[in-house]
Amino acid sequence: MTGARRALPARGLRYGGDYNPEQWDRATWREDVAAMRAAGVTTVTVGVFSWALLEPEPDRVETAWLDEVLDLLHGAGIEVDLATPTASPPPWLARLDPETLPVDASGHRLHHGSRTHFCPSSPTYRERALAITRAVARRWAAHPAVVMWHVNNELGTTCWCPRCGEAFRGWLRARYGSVEALDAAWGTAVWSQRYARWEEVAPPLRAPYLLHPAHTLDYRRFASDALLALYRAERDAIREVDAVRPVTTNLMGFFGGADYRSWAGDLDVISDDSYPDPADPGSPVRAALTHDLMRSLADGPWLLMEQAVGAVSWRPHNVPKTTAVMRQDALRAVAHGADGVLSFQWRASPAGPERFHSAMVPHAGTGTRLHRAVQQLGRDLAALADVAGTHERAEVALLHDWPSRWAAEEPATPSEHLRVLPQLEAWYRPFWETGVGVDVRHPGDDLEGYRLVLAPQLYLLTDDDAARLRRYVTDGGCLALGPFSAVADGNARVRTGPFPAPFTDLLGAEGEEWWPLPGGGGDDDTVGLVPDPASPEDVGSGTARTWAEVLRPTHGVVVARFDGGDVDGLPALVRSRDDRLHYLATIPDDVLLRRWLLGLAERRGVAPRLPVAAVPAGVEVARRGPVTFVLNHRRTAVEVPVRTPCLDLLDGVEHQARVPVPPGGTVVLREALT
């Protein structure tokens, strides 16, 4: 972190969304502000896509329209997250310097006419972006409506142009020092790729066959750092005139184009955009996992910067949310640490690519079912104001590392069907289903105090991070590793010797071969899993798909074995004798995985800290501070048993032994004072 995080002023749970007044006339501005007040809106993001209006031609900045908007919002008591408009440069920038436009991996330069059409390494783009950032900051740093600065928007552009190639070489020099060290780290003796001069190193453009995995991995690291450098430059320009207000940029969950763990220390407020698919029954668990990632990056409360109140416009088939699901999505974010819920956007756009994206005020206006639900959500969040600022560290940590994910999913690995995010979700789900809190951490984080640490697939592991995990285990922690973990070092070079190489002595088992199962992972392409007769614990029988490994036990305990196929009889699940290190060498069925993980948790003393006595199937329960959120995903009503009388903070009803939750309903419980 670059220093202590600057905090937003306390204001309960913030509520609002992106506001784009540049799309509307002045009369509509006044209607909007009145409707915002009626809906309980407290916070709006302004200016994200306003560069062409703020600076219609180079160095002619027009501010009067935004002065008026900010004054109107402030007069209504609505605070502003003021954006720098640099995500979408105006047409004149590409006309003056076409090299500000990005180049794709085939070497083709892209065009103006969309958004994010900039090269992160372009000096012209950076010069003009910083100029408009300084103009915005100087003009409105003292405006009382502004409570936070919002840099750019969804930073995610990767460019492969010659300027990026030059910047990449500079990044490599800083990382490796010499071209000889680069050759050694990358292993460029393979396929005669040895570099003799820095000038020979280029971005990994599309080639006739496979690219070198260390080359592409480092380019992804560089691309993430290049975007972070843009953020820092704009943030520093703001800091020249405002050293007080927090600065953020909106992240995108587990987005693969940037390493958000390396960004987190530079953001005063961790904010995220979340768009779960209402047509996907798995979306609630993925949304919760992503929210836990954000809470963990923040080490506390964070801000949901964007969500949809209904349908989005960018999927092939855009199923809308029901108003109940919209409410659930918002309250789930709060349950997992969000101190505010903002949506994209306030008023639906009549033109442009997002004209069919839902909004808090739909095309049909404020007298609609959707807008009434928007107003109700405002009242709900106001009723939960005391939740803001509360935070508890979980007892379970789930490990994720962006470079490890990038390296694991390069071509020419043993199976393209073994992917990191599905593994993370599968290992997270049993805890989500039982209401056990989970933090999403990095192997380099301080893991002291976690009763259980899970690494579902940690393919790449640096020597330093491996040493940290070893210390965690030898100091008494419990670590569970999933398949294809600790395979490569920080340069994506496969570690030689038995695997998982950094841990075989602690585990008491040695891996010899990776063995993808026939069929690639369909439900019909499975082998059996059976408990080892000599194991002191019984995880039961089940099936395995997609992946297996050839393990040879030394002094460890075999818990389960494969039953059938080419791996018949081989160990599938092994643990150390002291029960502190576990290695699962396959993808088991969900029932067996749940039984194993919850058994580990129970042996480590992990249990849900809930007033709820049992979590019925199809019900999601999460606790935040003194408050418990219960979300019913069923199409039928359910009664949830509670250990103590509880008050529903949303409707004021006190429940004694059982809490009724309607289909798609949400209740928020506080244990009643006795």
Detailed description of the structure:
It is a single chain. The chain has three domains: 14-86 and 137-159 and 223-387, TIM Barrel (Alpha-Beta Barrel); 396-603, 3-Layer(aba) Sandwich (Rossmann fold); 619-671, Golgi alpha-mannosidase II (Immunoglobulin-like, Sandwich), CATH 2.60.40. It has 17 helices and 28 strands. Helix 11 links the parallel strand 8 (302-306) and strand 9. The model has no long low-confidence stretch (mean pLDDT 97).
Strand order of the largest sheet: 11-10-12-13-20-19-18-15-16-21
Number of helices: 17
Total beta-strand segments: 28
User: What's the CATH topology name of the largest domain?
Assistant: TIM Barrel
Q: How many angstroms separate the termini?
A: 44 Å
pLDDT below 50 for ≥5 consecutive residues: which ranges? none
Q: Which bin fits the share of residues in helices?
A: 25-40%
Question: In CATH terms, what is the architecture of the largest domain?
Answer: Alpha-Beta Barrel
Strand content: 15-25%
What is the multimeric organization of the chains shown?
Answer: single chain
Largest sheet: 10 strands, mixed
Q: What is the count of structural domains? A: 3
Rg value: 26 Å
- Averaged pLDDT: 97
Categorize the overall geometry: globular
CATH-level-4 superfamily name of the largest domain: Glycosidases
